[in-house]
């Protein structure tokens, strides 16, 4: 799950002397949110396609004070890229070396396609969100509750940390769901959300919902 294994290079980076109009058109053609500017192979920054459309004619160098300095290192994990996509409202992120050499890019689609292979997204199952006291939180206990009811955990993440409580969302198999509910409540957890519809047509919605949750972290 390292970025270096998913680098693409078909989307060109631009030199400072290239025109704003050309960069905007290429971004639009590829359907990407940003263009990336380099100088002698070194990454300088990015500009959003919408910003380019609203800019006067000229070279990209004339917009240098607006360059957005966001990029991900080649030895980072795919998870590290998610916050960049979300923070910069981007569907493409530049990849650089430790020396800040531009190596290529990774797209939001690449991330989604890779994560969709994992059980958290690929397996059809139930979604359950439970709440407990922050001091009481134990992933070991949560796993034991699910597994003691002969069900499996496909994935889990913390989706809210409050002053006196914590919310944990689980993707679990569809066995003994009512019993799992009761066991959580018996151990002092509050079940605040559950989605037990296992129709295949809901699977893609589930995947997208989980992906959105990751982006919001």
From TrEMBL:
Gene3D superfamilies: CBS-domain
Pfam family, any one: CBS
Superkingdom of the source species: Bacteria
Signal sequence range: none
Occurrences of domain CBS (ranges): 72-115
InterPro entries on file: CBS_dom (IPR000644), CBS_dom_sf (IPR046342)
The protein's name: CBS domain-containing protein
Organism: Epilithonimonas mollis
